[in-house]
Write a structure and sequence with these properties.
2 domains, globular, 16 helices, 428 residues, alpha/beta, 15 strands, Rossmann fold, six-stranded parallel beta sheet
Length: 428
């Protein structure tokens, strides 16, 4: 992807500001997919993207395919592989890991200076800490993009408290992927913060006119074509695959032709849970109707084949990217009410919300959609309309560019915006 140049200012060509996008991993989790789509739509007449990752992997490959300059500065394995739910007061004091982070930050600081970086954007909790220190050492502004809820049900309490404190002293600006995420930071006021939802990149499949028949008309599941109900997301206990399977057993008793798919794989040391849910499927007698598809590249294609998408997280989801993907395809959604999900799904209007961890409520909501295909279809179409209005990656890119614009205009790196009517960045 070629780098464009800004229009001349006072007769002199103006170079785009270099934004360093930092992520500790190259594995394709939700935050990394969101970053990938964002970078493809960044206005390169004003902002030159430069990506630094802590490892080689799929994200690096995909970015390079699009001509986005991507460098790997290998992150030490003991830092890269530390899971956030394994942290605690003792682990915060591990001298080896702290030393590795400091050394990496100094290395990144040298990279920032040598590559003429004007602003650092960090895309994960580990990247926030490393990139924040490096940016401060290099004396360039840093934006923390928070994609995780900083609460005790998501992180160990000492880690959450420490991170909230650092939010007040390191970043120049904080972007959160939902109002629910932003609220968990307990920041003192509206300045230096904004909500920028992770937008969906519309594809040719989801941009076409949606046809009728989102749900086959089989109220009892005893005749006609089968029904396909899926859950998409990495396999992790907090994502609730076990809740989905227990609800599936109830739905199957009412709708014998129902089939179920679990799409995703363990990413961060969660293989034991993956084995647990496979054993649960067997014990529930679902092996003949449940497919475990593992990691899949073409999620759009798999979602297009579903009749209903279920989101089953038992801890509040920071945002809910896959929900948006299903809504964009006009699929009716049953999702758990927590975190940022209610910002996406309007209960009874663009989907159905159920309490987290409530197997019976989830099974009942799915049953309602199967028993009333027309209502399910209307929910799907209303959900698609909501995504097109509020949750596209184009909206995300323009909002984040506004953040960059404000910071870099104030410090003189960029001239004033050419579009004075651009949407201001505001906290919710």
């Amino acid at each position: 992807m070629p780098v464009n140049r800004q229009p001349a200012v006072d007769g002199r060509p103006k170079q785009p500001a270099t934004i360093l996008f930092l992520d500790h991993t190259s594995r394709l989790g939700g935050g990394e997919i969101a970053l990938y789509h964002l970078l493809l739509l960044l206005d390169q007449e004003r902002f030159r993207p430069l990506v630094v990752l802590g490892e080689e992997g799929p994200l690096a490959v995909k970015l390079r395919e699009w001509g986005i300059e991507t460098c790997v500065i290998p992150l030490p394995a003991d830092v890269a592989n530390t899971r956030k739910d394994s942290l605690g007061a003792g682990s915060l004091l591990k001298i080896r890991e702290i030393g590795a982070i400091i050394l990496y930050s100094f290395r990144l600081k040298s990279f920032i200076k040598s590559h003429g970086v004007h602003l650092v954007h960090t895309n994960s909790l580990k990247a926030d800490l490393i990139g924040g220190v490096a940016a401060r050492l290099a004396r360039v502004p840093v934006v923390w993009h928070i994609r995780d809820r900083i609460e005790n049900d998501y992180l160990p309490a000492p880690v959450a408290a420490a991170f909230r404190f650092l939010c007040r002293i390191i970043p120049d600006f904080i972007v959160a992927n939902s109002a629910a995420t932003l609220e968990t930071l307990h920041l003192p006021g509206p300045a230096r913060q904004a909500v920028v939802h992770s937008g969906y990149a519309l594809t040719q499949k989801t941009s076409t006119v949606v046809h009728d028949g989102v749900i086959p008309h089989v109220p009892t599941g005893k005749s006609g074509s089968s029904i396909l109900i899926g859950l998409v997301g990495r396999i992790a206990r907090w994502k609730g695959q076990h809740i989905f399977l227990e609800a599936a057993a109830i739905v199957r008793s009412r709708f014998p032709l129902a089939r179920f798919q679990i799409i995703g794989a363990p990413l961060f040391g969660e293989e034991a849970y993956g084995e647990e849910i496979r054993a649960l499927s067997t014990s529930l007698g679902l092996d003949d109707c449940v497919e475990f598809l593992g990691f899949c590249d073409d999620i759009d294609l798999l979602i297009s084949e579903l009749n209903i998408l279920v989101h089953a997280s038992i801890t509040g989801e920071p945002f809910g990217q896959v929900i948006i993907e299903a809504m964009a395809a006009a699929k009716p959604v049953v999702a758990t009410r927590g975190g940022g999900v209610p910002e996406i799904v309007k209960d009874g209007i663009t989907g159905m919300l159920v309490p987290m961890g409530d197997v019976a409520a989830m099974a009942d909501a799915v049953g309602q959609l199967l028993a009333d295909p027309e209502h399910a279809r209307q929910l799907g179409l209303a959900g698609r309309e909501r995504v097109l209005r509020r949750f596209t990656v184009e909206v995300t890119a323009r909002r984040l560019e506004s953040v960059f614009e404000n910071i870099l205009t104030r410090n003189g790196t960029l001239p004033p915006a050419s579009n004075p009517q651009a949407e201001p960045v505001l906290a919710p």
